[in-house]
Hints:
Blueprint: H1 2-24, E1 51-58, H2 62-75, E2 79-86, H3 88-96, E3 103-105, H4 109-117, E4 127-132, E5 134-139, E6 160-163, H5 169-180, H6 184-187, E7 191-194, H7 197-205, E8 211-215, H8 216-220, E9 225-230, E10 239-245, H9 252-261, H10 265-273, E11 277-278
Parallel strand pairs: 1-2, 1-3, 6-7, 6-8
Antiparallel strand pairs: 3-10, 4-10, 4-11, 5-8, 5-9
Amino acid sequence: MKEKKLLALLVAVVLSVSLFAGCTSKAPETPGVETSSPDESLVAEEPEKEVELLISAAASMTDVLQEIAENYKVISPTTKLTFTFGSSGALQTQIEEGAPADIFISAAQKQMTALEEKDLIVKESKKTLLVNKVILIAPKDSNLSLTSFEDIIKDEVEKIALGEPTGVPVGQYSEEIFTTLGIWDKVKTKAVYGSDVRTVLTWVETGELDCGVVYATDAYSTDKVKIVAEAPEGSHKEVTYPIAVIKSSSNVQKAQEFLDYLSTDEAVKVFEKYGFSMK
Length: 279
């Protein structure tokens, strides 16, 4: 009888210890102390932060880049593209003076080379992206009998719109063309210089000047002008568009991703729709 009581007491003790252990097996929920491993699949990922890319681009790319920017929103919803359009020479100067920019797209090699020589671009990112043509245009309702670049020296042409040759690539190409044709001295007496190619286009669209020299893509962008002629083959350097990431960019990876996108089939279709050719 005494043994049964001892056995019962022992069982009771064991049960008590087990119950106590069960009650204390859960770690105390002390603030600041991780008490268990969370199920990682149930942990929501932190949303990606928005990144703004500042793109300095040649004025002749205004329309095409705005359409590409709309498409890129689908590819990278958290990347905001902000453009500064202007003459490549003016944009080059801005970057040299410290203006913030992540990407530079020039309408000529000269301006990109200047930035490269000053170690302002990521050299590995530099590539030549596009090709364009140089075109002589006149207002759509013009009655002038123009059929070639040589016709500019006719007396009936009083004023011609050109890009400013020192800083506007299309102006540099224009000077090169007329010099090759041997008529630059006569043409420049009629020239009115615009600060970028879009200014030249506007002057001709409005009939303010008799004619002008722009890129083919600018002429295609409006129904207010007519194309007189394409610059004679061999009369100027090839019109190419180099592109690169700016070395001071704080978003080099995102900038490179956008550069890579510009060579995709989707982007190429948009460039070709606007009249550009791929290099």
